[in-house]
């Protein structure tokens, strides 16, 4: 298959997946018990008032009509308005996506920076106590919920040492130093767990690399271990690492939802949780679709990237095609 | 190795730089008082959404009413300097304070007040407003300074209701975007709203009464109680408006750093019983439940002993309060025999469906245990709050027992509605509430007291306790209300002593 055809097929798959996802998301959300009119009116509402509000909000139209309406909006770039606050959803998602984007992006960058040396170190020294210690530490950190990591960081750096704020957020445009102070702890909380997970993948990838003929040859012609590993090993290890990174990015998004709650950060996660508890279904559907689209897009890009990094994949694909 | 050392040095430098920044920015923020609250307002439009978090932030701070409720539950003048009532009780005249101004600078004159109240009662989106203003026949302006309210029938609760959400006066020229830009006459105006996170208030330039001492206030909302206490300990917060984790009080015991105040609220925590179900329509079963639960013990476990035992649906700040907490003393033996009399000698199974709120889930474990000891098997079910609980328990009444705090002022009147989710039907009680509302004013309090006693005697529900109001503030912050007699977190007397 030519690279272009391959790209076209992946794109078609992406679009089909998005369509199916939209139907599942909207359908499932409509099965959720509880309705927004009741939530808005609270514990003093009578059924007629709730029914009236429901009609006013257009919630009693049939499912296909509401779905078509919502899909039509999505396709024309109109995400609609929140039922609860009446505010347009698109700008809210955009501003919150920026916040979550920083959180996830920085956490991922930090995790990658930390997992490479830790993972390689653990692989090289896997038969010694220090290598074992690194593995054990990553095992412990891995099992730490992001929520707990956040609380622990707050206790140490905010409550005990008083160095950094325990929560809230300042936009980068408002004050870069304040933005940095507010985002350090949540990013670290997310990155810590993530780095531990990734370090284990790096370790096992490099254990394979260490047994590889390339490396043995490089060592035989006089390369020292670390330069040889970085020069020859990194490319081979990066294939599995990129795949794992793609997968982990979606768990990082989920982790961000929790971390945003702990640190009171106005990101996409807290927007989603608030909307769920208020049964503001249009907001929930929009945010979930944005998240689904992001995850699918990441998977798509990872696929492309793996093919680019690993020429063997292209060759095998071509061979299979010809048979 | 050298690289490692360099990285460590760089990390240290970064941390030091950040801690340096921490110092700078705290200096600059000292004119803002940051309040940590629990529930965030979903919108700022309190005419369309019933969430208690909206009046907590806006009532008396941003919006004002003709008269207000003080910390002891008494009515005081606010926009109205004085008021009078006709002999038949059907006509009220309010004399407005001629200094009153909206944040826009426009005068709060009689026409604006009449316009606002008429709009409130003719287009009520929230039910509570409709019922609270149901007796009003007309609101009209007489000249610039006098507002006259005429009633279809006497309403002894009208003045009180006018002090709450139903009576807020909205700037008629600025009501197009109340969800983002509330337009009132209070000492503060809203300068920022980030849903779910914070609301920023700033002293209004046109504040017509005494200008607030604290120029800027921020309400910050914490879904997680641990983060909230950590934020106060680390200095990010100045006040926790309502501590929901009483175990954490001990962390604020240093009086040089913190002040802890304990007061009462309007939040009656009720073990709601579905009076319509077969088992619970039998009064003996309801009595047995009341006697099987050691409310003092429950309060010790759930709230570290803080909170008040009340025994009915009335907080001590209401004029008709009587201590009924001893009406059903803890007596498991008697509970068991009552159950046997009601035909449940071999046990009874009841569904306890509670909202996912900390006090409710904590109470569930205690109640399950205590009822288990008298032979009632409790099947518990935690329902996500608000949506699922409202759907299953409140709307469909598909439950036997539930635990929830009712925070609206004067919400004892809900028991007079036979379709309310308790499905309580007692004609005498309903008649007493109606008479207290529209009968001779002099008898109103006595009738309400009588109604509260009936509710307790009937064991209509189990009135577990009254939510405590635990406010924790940094030392130097004063002027916080002790009790929560209204829905407002009143900022008008807030002070911060200079450091």
TrEMBL record, chain A:
GO-annotated cellular components: plasma membrane
Could you confirm whether the keyword rRNA-binding appears in this record? Answer: no
Boundaries of every ABC transmembrane type-1 domain copy: 97-306
Q: Has UniProt tagged this entry with the keyword Glycosyltransferase?
A: no
- What kind of membrane protein is this, topologically? Multi-pass membrane protein
Known InterPro entries for this protein?
BPD_transp_1_N, MetI-like, MetI-like_sf
List the keywords (alphabetical): Cell membrane, Membrane, Transmembrane, Transmembrane helix, Transport
Q: Name one GO molecular function term.
A: dipeptide transmembrane transporter activity
Which residues are listed as membrane-spanning?
A: 12-32, 102-124, 144-163, 183-202, 239-263, 283-309
Gene3D superfamilies recorded for this chain?
MetI-like
Record localization: Cell membrane
- First-listed, main subcellular location of the protein, grouped into a coarse class: membrane
**PROSITE patterns per the UniProt record, alphabetical:** ABC_TM1 (PS50928)
Q: According to its UniProt record, which protein family does this protein belong to?
A: Belongs to the binding-protein-dependent transport system permease family.
Name of the protein in question = Glutathione transport system permease protein GsiC
Q: What's the source species for this entry? A: Acidipropionibacterium virtanenii
Gene designation: gsiC_2
From TrEMBL, chain B:
Q: Which domain of life is it from?
A: Bacteria
CC annotations in GO? ATP-binding cassette (ABC) transporter complex; periplasmic space
Q: Which GO terms describe its biological process?
A: peptide transport
Q: Which Gene3D superfamilies match?
A: Dipeptide-binding Protein, Domain 3, Periplasmic binding protein-like II
Domain named Solute-binding protein family is located at 74-405
Pfam families on file: SBP_bac_5 (PF00496)
Q: Which SUPFAM superfamilies match?
A: Periplasmic binding protein-like II
Report keywords, A-Z.
Signal
Cleaved signal peptide residues: 1-22
Q: Chaperone: is it a keyword of this entry?
A: no
> Which GO molecular function, any one, fits this protein according to its record?
peptide transmembrane transporter activity
PANTHER family in alphabetical order: D,D-DIPEPTIDE-BINDING PERIPLASMIC PROTEIN DDPA-RELATED, PERIPLASMIC BINDING COMPONENT OF ABC TRANSPORTER
Protein name, entry field: Glutathione-binding protein GsiB
- This chain's source organism reads Acidipropionibacterium virtanenii
Q: What is the lineage of its organism?
A: Bacteria, Bacillati, Actinomycetota, Actinomycetes, Propionibacteriales
Gene name?
Answer: gsiB
